[in-house]
Specification:
Oligomer: homodimer
Number of domains of chain A: 2
CATH superfamily of the largest domain in chain A: NAD(P)-binding Rossmann-like Domain
Structural class of chain A: alpha/beta
Order of helices and strands of chain A: EHHEHEEEHEHEEEHEHEHEHHHHHHHHE
CATH topology of the largest domain in chain A: Rossmann fold
Radius of gyration of chain A: 20 Å
Strand order of the largest sheet of chain A: 5-2-1-6-7-10-11-12
CATH class of the largest domain in chain A: Alpha Beta
Helix content of chain A: 40-55%
Shape of chain A: globular
Strand content of chain A: 5-15%
Largest interface: A-B, 57 and 57 residues
Number of helices of chain A: 16
Amino acid sequence: MSIITFVGAGQMASALSFPATENGHEVRLVGTHLDREIIETAEASGFHPTLKRQLPNEGIKYYQIEDVELALDGTNAVLCGVSSFGVDWFCEKILPLIPDSVPLLLVTKGMIALADGFMITYPDYFISKLPDGKKLSINAIGGPCTSYELADKDHSAVAFCGTDIEILRRFKKLFETSYYHISLSTDVVGVECAVALKNAYALGVSLAVGLAIGTDGSGKEHYNSQAALFGQSVKEMKHLLEIINGGAENIIYGAGDLYVTIFGGRTRKIGTLLGRGFSFEKAMGELEGITLESIVIATRTACCVRRLAKRGMLQLSDFPLLMHVDNIINNGAAVDIPWTSFETEKY
Amino acid sequence: MSIITFVGAGQMASALSFPATENGHEVRLVGTHLDREIIETAEASGFHPTLKRQLPNEGIKYYQIEDVELALDGTNAVLCGVSSFGVDWFCEKILPLIPDSVPLLLVTKGMIALADGFMITYPDYFISKLPDGKKLSINAIGGPCTSYELADKDHSAVAFCGTDIEILRRFKKLFETSYYHISLSTDVVGVECAVALKNAYALGVSLAVGLAIGTDGSGKEHYNSQAALFGQSVKEMKHLLEIINGGAENIIYGAGDLYVTIFGGRTRKIGTLLGRGFSFEKAMGELEGITLESIVIATRTACCVRRLAKRGMLQLSDFPLLMHVDNIINNGAAVDIPWTSFETEKY
């Protein structure tokens, strides 16, 4: 039995308590200051109010953030369960508390933009934030997996990435079950880039849903146009993976994750509203109070692609869908899919 | 104005009458012996009984098969609109009638297996069937496009492939409209292989739908498992494209077409039934009377992959999903997704 300390009690981290406890490990679920009510409720009744599921009956201990050091005492591994909005908090407050010998696994997926617009993976970002002289093994989870379905023990296939294959194998042993299937990769940039990109493109494909449903919402969903945008997304993602030297085979995580994101939740919702003709402000208003990582990530990715273009590393004209999504989000552009710019001649 | 003779009045060919007539061309729609009623009904009322749509009011002339030579007289291009089951008939009866100067465009997508199990593209197959000394330019349409949505003038993006880029450009000019978007490629093997493969894999991904819905049909659709099978499909398709020297960029047609096929019609239906636990015979019984190209193509593709493995050109273990689909269809295997064989270690 190992002890795994989860810092952050959001939906994905909490869902991972199922495979971990099923494998006989002790999960110490620590809420951040934003998770206070979640921890209170879960400790009292086992119910997770945002995951909307009963957490495992056995094997979980609950902690408020004040007790994080207690929760880290004697732990064998740490799971960082904060969203991208909590990353800096985690790096400042929690990273220094983790012993060098204890490996860290991030639920936070994708890339983050530095001040100069260059994007790096979350593991690299976390490493850059380590206190002087501190060494930690920092790994991350990529691939298509929604927390609800994981909690319901549906089959999910993900990738754990990091620089040390032995540590990745240890993490796989902690979490692999008959329904949670884990591939391992030391190509951190490839896995995380694929995963980051799908956020932007899920929004792009969802535009077709809204276009078909129409302004008054009475239309029927169509698939030819979704498929066209899906194919274009795969093409642009594959191209960007090549430019950043991520292995092209990571497109499987990008395409799989794109697929599940198009069917799930908020990114589809905003894309659909935009496709129906809502302005970006109005569409965001409809989703009020909900933080949309996909918007942040799409903006960052587009920003990064524009900078790479300025340096001559790529042609903006190879990314017409991403540029259009960015123009909708950030420049108030109306949805007007640049269909002809997707057309190619290969001979 | 050009004259385009469509031989075969099935759904896809008939749907293509919309962009062709909209561009001011004359469409001569010739029914095969199987299309007799379609032509009678459409000629009388403009209604296409299987496409379930009114065909364009102007620009179409209707012909029964007896009048095919009349329909070919003075034509500028021919569209072959038969399904894979009609290909041999077309090659024997119609190919000899087409003048050498008139290019042919095939609606029939994908690959066909020769007697030795090797697969070739339909354009190559048609060329092999040309009478001695006859030369024809034979081209094909690939990419995600369902006939209903094309007839409804929803946006669709496809690829025309053939060996002569100038002829492809002429075809593009005939058919390109504000909703029918055409890329061109001389990589015939790449485009057609991608398209053929998606048939097999659409069935594979649909298994997850059935598994989630369950034996009694009361379950809810899940997406993590579909996404996992989708990602695995993209991986296997990409790998096979590399082995046959089709450009890897054709994965965009494969992935796009896979996406639309999962949502459309018969292939999804059979995959869902199998996933719910129906035997192959019982599942096919539920769809009685319907010819399922995906079953034929999945079987052919698996057969071809097994032969390539025997020749040492690939490892069967790299195609676990395709092999499982083949075992379900052809060996009476029960659905039991080989999840762990999808897992990889990359370092």
